[in-house]
Design goal:
Order of helices and strands: EHEEEEEEHHHEHE
Largest sheet: 7 strands, mixed
Distance between the termini: 34 Å
Radius of gyration: 17 Å
Low-confidence stretches: none
Number of helices: 5
Strand content: 15-25%
Shape: globular
Number of domains: 1
Mean pLDDT: 95
CATH superfamily: Ribonuclease Z/Hydroxyacylglutathione hydrolase-like
Structural class: alpha/beta
Strand order of the largest sheet: 3-4-5-6-7-8-9
Number of strands: 9
CATH architecture: 4-Layer Sandwich
CATH class: Alpha Beta
Length: about 180
């Protein structure tokens, strides 16, 4: 908002910010439009007030699923072209970090009830029709409880799709068609 960018979020999230003309509270399940972007916010489960995932449509990128800060989605989606998905941790790595003392056991419950595991991400992806998906972008990987290379390999093997792990400064082309 400081940089002149409008923010669209739930009323619960909006209540955490100073109210400005750049802050727009939108209801879950009600599509809104910003320029050529049509956006459908939907409820997700996280330890925040009214968190959302978003299904975004644009003529050039098609249907983009943006899903982060949740440990699962009760929804399935059709006609997706691109997916941007949190894959935060692997349970085996998490448990090994707790056992070795690298991670305080008190953090375990918060992680597993508010962030998506590799296994859950694979289940979510395979529950959806991915026939039109060009890109799956993995985001919000834990610094200590994930492995970039193995996550990309496992998600790619499960889906047969192009996998990119977002990194600071990355530019990823999200076209509706692969060419």
């Amino acid at each position: 908002m400081r940089y002149g960018i409008d923010i669209f979020c739930s009323a619960g999230t909006a209540a955490k910010f100073n109210q400005t003309h750049r802050l727009h509270a939108v209801p879950s399940g009600q599509m809104f439009q910003v320029g050529e972007f049509k956006v459908l916010p939907f409820d997700v489960v996280h330890d925040a007030v009214e968190p959302f995932g978003f299904l975004i449509n644009h003529p050039e990128s098609g249907n983009v699923l943006f899903l982060t800060d949740t440990f699962y989605s009760e929804f399935t989606f059709r006609d997706l072209n691109n997916i941007i998905l949190e894959v935060n941790y692997d349970m085996a790595i998490l448990e090994a970090n707790i056992k070795s003392g690298k991670l305080n056991p008190a953090f375990r419950n918060r992680i597993v009830t508010s962030h998506m595991s590799l296994q859950t991400a694979k289940e979510l992806l395979t529950a959806n029709d991915l026939s039109k998906v060009n890109n799956i972008v993995l985001i919000h990987l834990s610094d200590g409880n994930s492995n970039t290379v193995s996550f990309a390999r496992e998600i790619g093997a499960a889906t047969g799709k192009t996998i990119t792990v977002a990194d600071c400064g990355s530019e990823i082309l999200l076209n509706k068609t692969p060419f």
